[in-house]
Amino acid sequence: MSFCNDSLKRWSQCAIALLCVIVILVGFEPPASALPQGNAIKDPKALLRYALPIDNPEVRELQDSLEDIAAQLRANRRWGAVTSDLSRAERVLTKKSDKILAGVVADKKSEATQLIEQLKTGVVEMNEIAAAKDKVKTLEKRAQLLDKIGDLEASMVSKFPFDIPQEYRNLPQLKGRATIAAKTSKGDLTIVVDGFSAPVTAGNFVDLVQRGFYNGLPFTRAEESYVLQVGDPPGDEVGFVDPKTKKYRAIPLEVLVKGDKVPTYGITLEDAGRYLDPPVLPFSAYGAMALARPDVDANGGSSQFFFFLFEPELTPAGANLLDGRYSIFGFVTQGADVLGQLKAGDKIESMKVVDGLQNFVEPKNA
Description:
This protein is an alpha+beta fold. The protein has nine helices and eleven strands. It has helices at residues 5-26, 44-51, 57-74, 79-95, 97-102, 109-131, 135-154, 199-211, 336-341; strands at 173-174, 177-184, 187-194, 227-230, 254-255, 264-265, 288-291, 305-308, 328-334, 348-355, 360-361. The chain has a seven-stranded antiparallel β-sheet, with helices on both faces. It has a two-stranded antiparallel ribbon with strand order 1-11. A two-stranded antiparallel sheet has the order 5-6. Strand 5 (254-255) and strand 6 (264-265) form a beta hairpin. Helix 3 (57-74) packs antiparallel against helix 4, helix 3 (57-74) runs antiparallel to helix 7 (135-154) and helix 4 (79-95) packs antiparallel against helix 6 (109-131). It starts with a helix and ends in a 5-residue tail after the last strand.
């Protein structure tokens, strides 16, 4: 049973078509506040960096300066703007490193100090590469430095930032992040799941990976669909039935909105009257992962999940009806080319947690 393929495609296509009809026929122009952001972030690693629960303006300024470079190079290779971004990064590292270190957890300050020194050296090297106007090497160096910034930001997280509601504490939880290595019949994927934004949804996924639940399961994908779904077990079941309780494990809809301290549970953002509020993890990146569910039950998800195959023309960033309707719990960070090749009938050969298992909390009924 497929929970979402047809409805996802129908919702997005209808929304875009309706907007076009309104604009063409009646000349209606939606208010600016109702329009999607045109500069939505499409890089899954950047989304994960920004989703970390930290409050350090200086390290975010450092990150922003390097994130911006990709946009400048897409815009007809604006090397002057790239130089300005690098100068801003250098100023932050030179003049504000003490404020960055102030946000680091005590036992990680030594590691963070080394990262800052490596970033200082790296920015100087990147300036030299940019001066030669080598786009490929500039982007490669940028990616390396942003990975270090991500490590620096991760060193600022001291503890899990909120309490999971009592009614869901019997479910598996991921209080942090985990990395999954997935082998498919077309190649390998690296997946990062984010328990900071969706601890119950991510915890359920990690638990099922640990059980070997997904090993050998086939993908399903409707023709021309922009979602690739997997997780339907063989037989009559449509989700995970706990072998100890003999009950279907239902996972609540779980969406963390930017600015909120805890996720919204059990209701879509639209039904909550918050359809314009942006989630921390949006459907703006190729390879976003979300829990599938029945159309009529926001809390009916279980084992089936889908990869969002972002297509700018059909599903422009920020202009879809998926944000707030489904629980995103991670992104494919490596293997996007493999993801694009997977079709109905291809299989997950194996999945394994390769990092972050210490953040996993076993279900209480296990």
